[in-house]
Every structure is written in structure tokens, then in C-alpha cells.
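Exercise 3.2. Students should predict the tertiary structure of the chain below and write it as C-alpha cells, then compare their answer with the key that follows.

Predict this chain's 3D structure.
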Amino acid sequence: MHDLWLPGGVRTEIRLTGEDTAGAFTLLVDEAPPGWELPPHRHLVESETIHVTGGTMWLALGGEDERMEVPAGSTVHLPPGLLHAGGTAGDEPLERVVIFSPAGIEEFFAAIGQESQDAQIDGPELLRLAGEYGWEFS
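Answer key:
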């Protein structure tokens, strides 16, 4: 699949879809710019496993304000339903390999992804699609 640009300037490549894995998981590779962050949210259906390959990620779990750092070479697993927030820590881009299981979330990313970094989906449409694909924002 080709590169998609997600809100916040995140370049994402969906490497394996549910079609490739018989519905078991989706695998993507992404790069987020310095300053990127995703507000507290949860995935109602999918678990999320994140392996940081470059830069450092911050992660806050369960609605807590305390942030932990996840440096390159580290892996974290987030079960379905866990409230979490995250973003780029430091001045370097964040590079990750992310697995969502079961598959299906790639349809959400395809729905909100844009062909260029400058084209962005509007907020109300993003929130509508997020709800449709089992994301809850707090």
C-alpha cells in the first residue's frame, strides 16, 4: 500500500492488512514529526503493539498525567480498551512499527489518510470516523 499522511503530519505506510493476515493483525510503519501528539483515546476492539525504531516516544496510560519515555529499541503492548495518549519526545522524528490485532483498523487509516502532507481531514469528520471504527477520545 502507498504512503498516507495522517493528521499531525504523520507519514504512514500500511505494510500488512487483514487481507494479508487472514484478519489476524494489521502492521504499519510510521514517522511522526517532533511535537506530534495524540490525545487520550482507547481502541475498543484492537490491541496495539508499538516498537520504536527511531527517536523517542512518550506514553501516558490509564488517564494518568505521568509520561513514560519509550526510546528506540523498546516495545510496548496496549490491550484493547486501555486509555492512552502518546507523542514524540524530543527534537527527532519518531519512527515506529505498529501492530493492531485483530485487523481492520487499516480501513480507518485509509479513510482519514491523505495523499499529501498538506491535505488534512477536518476535525468533525475525523471524530465521526474514529467513532465508527471503535476509537473513543477522552
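Discussion points: The chain has one domain: 3-132. The longest strand covers residues 47-54.
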